[in-house]
Amino acid sequence: MASLLNIVSVSPTTSSSSSAANFHSRHLLAPTFSLSFTRRRIAIRAAENGGNEADEPNKQNKTGSSFNQLLGIKGAAKETNKCKVRLQLTKPVTWPPLIWGVACGAASSGNFHWDFEDVAKSIVCMMMSGPFLTGYTQTMNDWYDREIDAINEPYRPIPSGAISENEVITQIWLLLLGGLTLAGILDIWAGHTFPTIFSLAVGGSLVSYIYSAPPFKLKQNGWIGNLALGASYISLPWWAGQALFGSLTADIICVTLVYSIAGFGVGIVNDFKSIEGDRAHGLQSIPVAFGAETAKWISVGAIDITQLLIAGYLTGAGKPYHALALLVLIVPQVIFQYQYFLKDPEKYDVKYQASAQPFLVLGMLVTALASCH
């Protein structure tokens, strides 16, 4: 997860390495140029990277659906409604895993009750983890990936020029500060003497930043980047939910970190739609580094082996029925892997995730319920 900020005029011969140098010379927090220039330059960059295929995004804009952008599907239509554009930047399709992680944490605490206060607490925690902090992460990632998106998805809000630099940066800050504020409120609400949830929110926000932004840009390395992504999407919201209603324990920390390996595998699924842009900008995602054929097996291996390890742990912990339920939930995932993902990971990535991921997250809930007894 190279810049347009210093480009006054763009030539079709401008190299991506030159753009990268320009990018590092400007900081996210220092917007100083006109909005009209921003939109024009981004649009030019999208057309430039499209080369002879510049007409194809236009066809996609005419025939695609703006809803596709929320799902992360290629071929989406360009959106002009500013409210929809802002929502697209936050990628709501990425919120459910975080929301579910909070639910798993609440369940594994053993202290959640179906009363008004506990339900209200969990909803606020889900808002913090999903729309606010995940929205912050996705908006910031789109900002730093705008030139990669100009190749892979030129109809995305930023490369298409549908939203300006200042508007994007404002949205990043509002979502970040909103999420941190909710984290502080939750600590007070839970009566914490140490701001556990606020600390988790700050830590997660920092990981999100160094994942997308230079000089670290963890996503440049497929192994480190996807592991960081998996931990952020599975472990952190689970820990927040558990800390809200109970206390973190060593076994839960270990279990969720193991589950993060499955998150690593899921992250690889999302990398297949960005191979062209990642390769052009030197990002060593797993599909770029190992090729699509090997990468798809690394992905399914990480997802399936992780759950088998968790099932083994539950068996050893005296939870054989929970382990059996988890094994049963692995079966349809394997079926959909062969039916969709292993057949064509680029064509069927969304269909595969829609079919298989519900069984993965149900397995997480089974593990959480086993942990609270």
Note down, in words, how this protein is organized.
The structure is a single chain. It is globular and about 50 Å long. The two termini are 39 Å apart. Helix 7 packs antiparallel against helix 9, helix 7 runs parallel beside helix 10 and helix 12 runs antiparallel to helix 15. It has 373 residues and is mainly alpha-helical. It folds into two domains: 244 residues, no CATH class; 125 residues, Up-down Bundle (Four Helix Bundle (Hemerythrin (Met), subunit A)), CATH 1.20.120. The chain is built from 17 helices and no strands.
What's this entry about, in short?
Keywords: Chlorophyll biosynthesis, Membrane, Transmembrane, Transmembrane helix. The protein has 373 residues and is an all-alpha fold. The chain has helices at residues 16-24, 35-50, 55-63, 67-71, 82-90, 95-109, 116-144, 146-152, 165-190, 196-212, 222-245, 250-271, 275-280, 286-290, 292-316, 320-341, 349-371.
Task: Present the secondary structure layout.
Elements: H1 16-24, H2 35-50, H3 55-63, H4 67-71, H5 82-90, H6 95-109, H7 116-144, H8 146-152, H9 165-190, H10 196-212, H11 222-245, H12 250-271, H13 275-280, H14 286-290, H15 292-316, H16 320-341, H17 349-371
Helix pairs in contact: 2-8, 6-7, 6-11, 6-17, 7-9, 7-10, 7-11, 9-10, 10-11, 11-12, 12-15, 12-17, 15-16, 15-17, 16-17
